[in-house]
Amino acid sequence: MGNKNYSRRNFINKCFSSACLFIGGMLLLNCRGKNESAGDESETQIQSNLEDPCNDLTDVGEGEIKKRQSLGYVKQSAVPDNSCGNCALYIPAKPDKKCGGCILFKGPVYVEGHCIQWAAVTA
Ligand code: SF4
Q1: Which of 82, 89, 99, 111 to probe ligand 1 with, by most ligand atoms within 8 A of CB?
Q2: Going by CA atoms, what residue is nearest to atom 2 of ligand 1?
């Protein structure tokens, strides 16, 4: 007869080794996929922000983003003759910047934007 070792300990060791290899491989593949994906997204976001700086909310807090959403801010006004540019609450862009701001929330604002708080400029 051959010298085969059919012990329970051997069987458990082989199962444990196989499981470790499988889990390690899955973790490696999973981590690699996430890093590539995150890199692509951040590169796309950076490119988008360079092309459209008034849409760059990377330095704006979550609360401020929710505030602008709750006010129904849009980057292009649908109301004729009413836009951020002629709103009393608009903060004009500084000479070295392309985007203005709003008194009601932080972050860049399009001069063509609009929200439900639009207020006419009074003399
Ligand atoms: S209140 Fe609304 S319309 Fe006026 S500047 Fe702010 S976001 Fe624009």
Answers
A1: 89
A2: 115
Model pLDDT for residues 48-63, shown as the tens digit of each residue: 667 788 999 999 999 9
Q: Which atom of ligand 1 is nearest to the CA of 100?
A: 5
Q: Residues 31, 86: one domain?
A: no
Tell me, what's the pLDDT at 30? 57
Q: Which of 90, 80, 78, 76 is nearest to 118 (CA)?
A: 90
Asked if residue 1 belongs to a domain, the reply is no
The position carrying tokens 């010298």 is: 3
Query: Residue 115 is part of which domain span?
Result: 57-123
Query: Is 71 contained in some domain?
Result: yes
